[in-house]
């Protein structure tokens, strides 16, 4: 990160990665975070004992805005230089995944070079799998790129998409199949 770039952790859970970014040197006031479950954000403050000191910006919101537009989220539109997705995109089916990609594009600063980075589960074949928490969508490298091409078409924003395949954890392979991988991605606004 450079200068006063802002970073958003989308689907931040307890905000453990938010605290890691700060420990790694990112000024806390430049870190933004969104989480569906308000209770997770509260648990994070309780766990890290920083409710009164942490200057990062958390909101509880549904990035899909299924119950209508979220004014707080809209307040961040166009302001985020880096969006980080930790194990997030596989939580949505293919259609909702596209909506998330489109919503992230709105949040992203319109300067070339602003990026969406992260990691999600993937597979050799694009498919849905059933996990204890519900259905997950495993993108293949090709379907991941295709989804971003659709998002680019809908938003009229051009992206360079880089996806690297890395080994998934043993537990994930045991649960979902030997071909399950981790997709590490870098989606950069051209
Ligand atoms: C698999 S967890 C990953 C959490 C964290 N990023 C990590 O790497 O450990 C996905 C997180 O996204 C949140 N989430 C799921 N759907 C969401 C939505 N529509 N809007 C915002 N957050 C959502 C979940 O509540 C959960 O905390």
UniProtKB/TrEMBL annotation:
Which pathway does this polypeptide act in?
Answer: Secondary metabolite biosynthesis
Q: Which InterPro entries match?
A: Meroterpenoid_MTases (IPR051654), SAM-dependent_MTases_sf (IPR029063)
Task: State the UniProt keywords alphabetically.
Answer: S-adenosyl-L-methionine, Transferase
What's the family?
Answer: Belongs to the class I-like SAM-binding methyltransferase superfamily.
Task: Tell me the protein's name.
Answer: Methyltransferase domain-containing protein
């Amino acid at each position: 990160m450079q200068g006063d770039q802002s970073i958003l952790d989308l689907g931040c859970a307890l905000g453990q990665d938010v605290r890691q970014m700060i420990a790694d040197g990112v000024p806390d006031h430049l870190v933004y975070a969104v989480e569906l479950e308000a209770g997770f954000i509260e648990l994070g403050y309780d766990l890290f004992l920083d409710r009164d000191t942490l200057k990062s910006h958390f909101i509880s919101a549904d990035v899909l805005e299924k119950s209508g537009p979220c004014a707080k989220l809209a307040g961040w539109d166009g302001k985020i230089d880096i969006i980080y997705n930790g194990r997030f995109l596989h939580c949505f089916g293919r259609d909702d995944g596209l909506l998330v990609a489109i919503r992230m594009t709105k949040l992203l600063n319109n300067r070339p070079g602003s990026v969406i980075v992260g990691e999600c589960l993937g597979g050799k074949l694009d498919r849905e799998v059933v996990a204890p928490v519900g259905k997950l969508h495993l993108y293949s490298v090709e379907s991941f790129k295709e989804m971003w091409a659709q998002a680019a078409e809908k938003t009229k924003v051009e992206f360079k998409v880089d996806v690297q395949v890395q080994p998934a954890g043993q537990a994930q392979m045991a649960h979902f199949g030997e071909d399950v991988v981790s997709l590490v991605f870098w989606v950069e606004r051209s």
